[in-house]
From TrEMBL:
Domain of life: Bacteria
Compositional bias (Low complexity): 537-555
Protein name stated in the entry: FtsK domain-containing protein
GO molecular function: ATP binding; DNA binding
Region entry Disordered, spans: 499-555
Regions crossing the membrane: 65-98
Domain FtsK positions: 257-441
Keywords carried by this UniProt record: ATP-binding, Membrane, Nucleotide-binding, Transmembrane, Transmembrane helix
Native species: Streptomyces collinus
Amino acid sequence: MARRPLPRILSNGSAQLARSRELARTAADSATDVLHPLITIARGLRRLAAAGRRRWTETPKERRGALLFLAASVVLVVALVPYGPLLAAITLMSAAAWQGRDRSPSASDGPDESQTQRLKSLYEALVPYFSAAEDPEPLYSHGGAWDKAFPTYAFDGSGRISQLVVRYPAYFTDGEAEARARIEHLLAAKSGRGREYHFTWDEEGNQLTVGVLLPLPVDIAAQHFVTTSGETVLGFTDPTRVQRTLPVTHGERQRDVPPVVWRTGLRSTEPHLLALGQPGSGTSTLLRSIALQALLHGDVVIVDGGGTGEYACLTGRDGVLAVEAGLAGVTASLEWAATETERRLIAANRAHQAGDPPPDDTKRPLWILLDRPTAFTHLAAADGRKDPQSLLQVPLRHGRPANVTVVVADQLDSMDALIEPVRQHTRARVVLGPATAEQLESVLGAPPHTTPIDELPPGRGYARLGTGPVHRLQVPATPNPYDDATPDALCEAVLSLLPPRTTPADGETIPEQDQSEDVPEPVPTAEEPEPEPEPGAPETPEAAPAAVPVLTKET
C-alpha cells in the first residue's frame, strides 16, 4: 500500500512559522520607528497631566478659585489672539515632546582614565606569564593593546574590577594546577584584596572569566528547615553552585537561599563528616546545628573535648543520650556506641537472612558528635589508658548499614593527631575559618574555585561532600544560648528548637518530707558511736539528742 504524502502545512510548517515570526518582528520594529514621535508625545502628555494633577492636589482649597480664574483668563486670551489656538497647540506638543524624551543615562563608550590605567597595569602584570619569545604575533607584550586581551570588563561603584574576561594564548599550560594558581593569585591581588573571586577556566576557548562573589548571608539563625529524614543542612552557599533553594525565615521576612545539604543513611556515599577550623571559627556552632536537626529523627551522643560547656543546653533533653566531658564518661559512651553498632548489625543481618524487614530499633538514627576528641588522646596517654578515638573504628567502618553517623570536629592544627580510620572514613569535609590554599586542598582533596581571604565571619568556610565540587559555606547562627554574650534573638531561636527535658521512666517524683511530723531518730550502735558536739556550739532543747546507752565491752 502506497504511503500518502503529508500535507504541506505539516511538512514545512516549521519553516513557514519561523518566516512569519520574522516578518512580524520586522513589522513591529518598523512600526516602532515610525510611531516613535507619537509615542514620545503621548508619554509627555501623560507626564504633563500627572504634573498638573499633582499641582492641583497640592494647592490649598482657598486658592483653587484664583487658580481656576487664572487658567480661564489664559484660555480666553489665547482664543482671542490671532493664530492663538495654533500657537498653543504647537507649544503644548513641544513641551510634551520634551517631557516624553528618554531620560535614561547613556552608556559610556569606554572606561574612564582611572579604569583604563587599572586595566593597563593588569595587562602588564600578565605579560611575563602569557608571553613567549617564539610567538610571532604575541597577544601579550610590553606596551601592547590591552583591549584585545580583555574583551569584557566591568567595574563596581568604587572603581574596582567586578567582572573580567581574560584571553590567553593557546600554549599557556592551563591544565596545570600550579600555573592556574599563579594567575588566580595575581588577578586577585591586582583587582583588589579583601574580596572573594570566582574563576572559570575555558580550556577550549582559551578564556578565563573572573567574577566577584557576593558575601554569604550571616544573619540566618537556626530554625526548622524544610528537609526530610536523612538530610542535614550544613549551611548556605552561592546560587550558582547548587540547584535547590530552601525557604528560611529572617525576622518577619522569608526568602529562599541555596543550601549545602548533607545526606546520610543507608544509601549515603558520605556517611560521616569531619569539620576542621581555627579556634573561634564556628566548628562548635556547626555541631550544635547538626545536633538540633538530628534530634528531630534520632538520638545523639555528644563528646565535649573543649570542656567549656558549649553543649550544656542539650543535657537531659529528649533524644540526647549523653553529654560527656570527662575521660571516663567519654570512654564509656564510645564503648556503648561501638557495642550498639554491633548489635544493630547483628539484628539487621538476622532479619535479612530470615527475609524479614529490619527491626524498628535499628532504624532510628544514632548520631555520635565529637568536639575536639584529640584532647582526650593526651589525657588517656598520661593516664595509661587507650585512646578513645580507637573506639570509633566500628561506628566508622560499619555505621552506614546500622544507621550510625559520626561527626568529628577539631582544630585544623590537630589533624595529624586524628587516627587513620577517622581521616579515611569521613568523606564529607568542612573547613571553617581562615586557611591557606594548601590547607584547603589537603583537607578537602581539591582546591576551591575561589580565592580564600584572611578575615572571615564565624561559621564561614568551605565544604565538599565526597568527590563533589567545593562549595562556599556559611553555617546557620547557632550559638550557645547560655552564653551571656549571645543576643537575645539568637538565644530564643536556639531555645525554641531544643527538645523538652527527659522525664523519669516511672513518672514518679520523690515527695518532700513534712517537717511537722515526729520522725524517730536512729539509735546509734557500737560500730557507729554518736558524734560528740562541737565545742562552743549552743545547746537548745529542741536539738538535744535523747539519752541512749552505748554498748561497750565493760557493760
